[in-house]
Amino acid sequence: MAWTTITYEELVVHPEATLRKVFSGWGMEIPAKALDLVRKPSSTVVEGSRVHDPHAQLSLWQSRMTPDEIQRALAMVRRFGIDLYDEGVMPTRSFTPGDHPS
């Protein structure tokens, strides 16, 4: 396998399944430390943040951007041939086995 494709969104919502995909590609079990690290909030997380609610964390950008800004950002992404994102929180397709876009 030349590479393993995952998305940030899948890693946030389904950390164990996403890491299983990555490590199984290398013929390895998921190290416990990897699971601990992916579940641990960043040191820059402020009290009261949405980090403990994955879907709220991922949707924060929707409340910070206007509909016009979202459309302009999506147009730029599409100019690069990336069709993985739309106005939704999750990518339009999944790369993690057993995961389905929400």
Number of helices: 5
Question: How far is the first residue's CA from the last residue's CA?
Answer: 27 Å
Using only C-alpha atoms, the radius of gyration works out to 15 Å
The proportion of strand residues reads under 5%
- Fraction of residues in helix: 40-55%
- Biggest sheet character: none
| Basic shape | globular
Structural class: mainly alpha
Report the strand count.
Answer: 0
User: Which sequence of SSEs, written as H and E, runs from N to C?
Assistant: HHHHH
Segments where pLDDT lies below 50 for 5+ residues? none
Can you characterise this structure?
This protein has 102 residues and is mainly α. The chain is 48% helix and 0% strand. The chain has five helices and no strands. The longest helix is centred in the last third of the chain and has 13 residues, at 67-79. The mean pLDDT is 84.
Compile the SSE list and pairings.
Layout: H1 8-13, H2 15-25, H3 32-39, H4 54-64, H5 67-79
Summarize the structure.
By secondary structure, the chain is mainly α. The chain contains five helices and no strands.
Highlighted features:
mainly alpha; globular; 102 residues; single chain; 5 helices
